[in-house]
Amino acid sequence: MTSTDAVVRLQRPEDLGALSDICVRTGHLGGDARELYRDHDLLPDLFLRPYVALEPDLVRVAEEDGRVLGYIVGTADSTAFFRAFRERWLPTVADRHPAPVGSPSTPDEEMRDLLHHAERMLVPEFSALHPAHLHIDLLPEGQGRGLGRRLMEAYL
């Protein structure tokens, strides 16, 4: 199938399960993270769901034959996003993903630590020049077909 068989559209609430699955299935250097993390809600609660909650109008999905193959999420203002992450998003998930005690020693603990200190992803020197950021995740069957480019075009 070609990229023209896929539709790029604004996300809908019923997409969240598929988007969360894609986040985990592409969460280890672009590959499947299901074996790496015990808690399969952790990566989506850090790298996907905050964008859906805080920047819903910027979330686009690539869908083909009723199946979501990938998505793009992001923000125009990283500094404001991470402030909202701490103030509005973290309180909704902190009980489910408590901060580790001491130094993180497992992949789950490392991600929980990052969740509780997400502002570490904000590099002031970089964000001063490039205030926006985004994430694109595509399942293998959606890759190499121009869907990433189409998601970017729809996002911008």
Please give the domain count: 1
- Give the tally of β-strands: 4
Order of helices and strands: EHHHEEHHHEH
Strands of the largest sheet, in order across it?
A: 1-2-3-4
Q: Report the total helices.
A: 7
* Coarse shape: globular
**Straight-line distance between termini:** 25 Å
* Whole-number mean pLDDT: 95
Helix content: 40-55%
Largest sheet: 4 strands, antiparallel
CATH architecture: 3-Layer(aba) Sandwich
Query: What's the alpha carbon Rg, rounded to whole Å?
Result: 16 Å
Name of the CATH first level: Alpha Beta
Kindly name the structural category.
alpha+beta
User: Which spans of ≥5 residues are poorly predicted at pLDDT below 50?
Assistant: none
List keywords for this structure.
4-stranded antiparallel sheet; alpha+beta; Aminopeptidase; single chain; 156 residues
Can you offer a commentary on this structure?
- By secondary structure, the chain is an alpha+beta fold.
- It has one domain (3-155): 3-Layer(aba) Sandwich (Aminopeptidase), CATH 3.40.630.30.
- The protein has helices at residues 16-25, 42-47, 49-54, 78-93, 107-116, 124-129, 147-155, and strands spanning 7-10, 60-64, 67-75, 133-138.
- It starts with 6 loop residues before the first strand and ends with a helix.
- The model has no long low-confidence stretch (mean pLDDT 95).
